[in-house]
Amino acid sequence: MENHSAPVKAISLDKYGIKSAEINYQLSPEELHDITIQDGQGIEAASGALAVNTGEFTGRSPKDRFIVRDAITKDRVWWSDINIPFDPDKFEKLYKKVTDYLSHKSLFVRDCYACADDNYRMNIRVINEYPWSNLFAYNMFLRPTEEELDHFSQEWTVINAPGFMANAEADGTRQHNFAILNFSKKIALIGGTGYTGEIKKGIFSALNFILPVFKNTLPMHCSANVGTDGDTAIFFGLSGTGKTTLSTDANRSLIGDDEHGWTSENTIFNFEGGCYAKVINLSEENEPEIFKAIKKGALLENVVLDEKGGVEFGNTSITQNTRVSYPIYHIDNIKTPSIGKNPKHIFFLTADAFGVIPPISKLTPSQAAYHFISGYTAKVAGTEAGVIEPQPSFSACFGAPFMPLHPAKYAEMLSKKMIEAGVNVWLVNTGWTGGPYGVGKRMELKYTRAMINAVLNGDLGLYNYEDYHIHSVFGVAQPRTCPGVPTSVLSPRATWNDDEAYYKTAFKLTNAFRENFKKFEMHCSEEIRRGGPQRYAF
User: Fold this and answer.
1) Which residues are catalytic?
2) Which has the least CB within 10 A, 84, 269, 302, 325?
């Protein structure tokens, strides 16, 4: 357990333009927990965790994320509907409005940092309007020692004002909420939304620009763990694919669950000091480490509690995106510091709601680059308004909303590192089997864990024709057998019991892959282009 006592240090926010604020500096998790409850902003769950409702926004708002277009960014950022430019003059005016709004208020300030490797450390000051937002910052960023705080100098500043509503017409935003990165001023400005994920994703997005451009380091939206012999495994995947669940393993030490850097010195380091896990349908049986981490100090978001204060994990009446943040030391088996060596295995996780991608398959380097750029998963009914059947969803590099550079830049860096390190790359379908969503069923977690363990234990061996089958549509190598997994589960076609329907659906998905990849083709080599599905539907 870490020392939570608050150091005595007088600070001022005048230099930010925030005047006469009451400053609650570096409060302990217990203090923030109690203030939130006293102010009527949250309640304590039976587990001891603090439960809050983030208000109007229960998830990120990607259309309201902006980057100031200036001398640093104008020729480097991949400007698009993901990276939306913001005028520097309008930023200055909006910044003044936000800091005026925060002046004379009781604010919560935390000094912390990102990047566990000292060579890449980035000091951050987080200024929050709400106490529970500051608890999130305590959980999710790395925590300096009291001695480090005495000489702390922040590089980036996060200013978080959920209660401030922008005037879209006057302020240059799309609507009343916004999350804006200013690389010249090193500020992440967030307003109009209480969703705490905007805080961590703002800094993550900044590092996704800084690390490759200035520090020759690949930033990755992935989780990572390490075995007893020091072998590192990396798990890429979008929300809901099992990234946090599969990397949190009692038999392996957790490096981190979401954001990492891969350095030129051949190390993997965690950006964060905590975990931000989805808790929809969480159970102690399937995810015991995460379940046990939900205790005093953890922050539950948008969950429904029963009359005894227990979390109704299956209740999605507020949102499907129910969450918990907790400091990484709430997990028993963690790597300290959060640094590992070059990975031996990389897993690309996809929740294929069409039920046609093999549950595990081995990728060639060109296939790995193609699937990394594609970043495929699927949306299912109920996750978004208007989604009534499975829809393919592509997010480049398994994290497009946080990638300021062109995806091909990250893919080139990953490909180079994979080849240099001799890494094996695996595509893992944690989605549906036996048919699409609504017909088939979700892949059992015990089988997915068995497949990953087989890879890590060396049980699947090297590719050869006797042990692997080349999928006739996707061209990937799927193992014929795997310890702990029924052979029938390994072939998605066999689980359908309807070859015609299976192939029709598989071809539909390959066409979606090709259509999505068109926007990347001109930036990719012929080798990468050939990494995708080669067969076309008639």
Assistant:
1) 60, 201, 221, 239, 243-244, 258, 323
2) 84
